[in-house]
Please model this.
Amino acid sequence: MIGNVLEWCADFPGAYKAEDAVDPTGAASGETRALRGGSWVHEATSVRSAARQQTVSYDEYHVAGFRLVAAAAAP
Model:
């Protein structure tokens, strides 16, 4: 799900490992946090999950947010 707001990521920005990976993470630590996805103020080419930006986690950024995910109840 992309668009509307940039999504805060749990990982830090940085280079990915060279080998293939499913759901890769960035650097293990850092000064800033990764943002991805693009928002309503970005050009269409930036509204994609591969588009990443970065900022400090305490920054008030009007186009950044996060998504809550609820686990499905067991049958």
User: Anything to note?
Assistant: The mean pLDDT is 78. Strands lie at 6-8, 33-36, 52-55, 64-65.
